[in-house]
Amino acid sequence: MEPVLDNLDLYVSGFWRSLEIVLWAAAGSLALGILLAAFRVSPVPVLQRLGALYVATIRNTPLTIVLFFFAFGVPAAFGVTWDFFALGTVGLVVYTAAFVCESVRSGVNAVDAGQAEAARALGLTFRQNLSLVVLPQALRTVVPPTGSVIIAMIKNSAVVGAIGVSGDLFSAYRRMASALGYERLPSIAGTAVGFLVMTLTAGAILMVVERRMAVSR
């Protein structure tokens, strides 16, 4: 581990860069995933089909293809001039949101139908029913599966680094193993430790959230 300790500043800066990717991707995928779940349980057939098509397409497409499409296909096809950080993060959001959607939808389906019927009887619209009655109950039950999706996303963020993002943990490994000439095993070990710190921290936070949600029920 001596090469890692000698270049600790490189890994620390890479850790913060990777953490930035993770935080942006987590926020975006949660927001988009909840919106897609609303589409899938919507009484509007067009929205239902749109949500189902999105989920079926993205869930059955490898992550690397989604990321390469956003990193290279989107700029070539639409003239987008964003950097790899933004393009890779958007690709990770698009991919992860499909899994968040199914997690949230399972929670919505688990809510007693009588709750929604009572809300409709009171005159609430679908949007009010979903946001005020159904989703608050559903989100309490989907913390564990959604947490697993977010932890998987943290690990998937390493692939974002592989498409050309500079300054993250994966690029720190590349620089150590190629430009600086260190052995690959200790170089990748430092990267693995960085991701392990993020996943273990996320798991601990999710355990706390799950306990609080259980108490509130």
SSE order and pairing:
Blueprint: H1 2-6, H2 8-40, H3 45-59, H4 63-78, H5 84-110, H6 113-121, H7 126-141, H8 143-162, H9 169-179, H10 184-216
Helix pairs in contact: 2-3, 2-5, 2-8, 2-9, 2-10, 3-5, 4-5, 5-7, 5-8, 6-7, 8-10, 9-10
Q: Tags for this entry?
A:
single chain, 217 residues, mainly alpha, 10 helices
Q: How far is the first residue's CA from the last residue's CA? A: 47 Å
Name the helix and strand elements from N-terminus to C-terminus, one letter apiece. Answer: HHHHHHHHHH
Question: What portion of the residues fall into strands of 2 or more residues?
Answer: under 5%
Poorly predicted parts: none
Instruction: Just name the CATH architecture.
Output: Orthogonal Bundle
Rounded average pLDDT: 83
How would you classify the helix and strand content by structural class?
Answer: mainly alpha
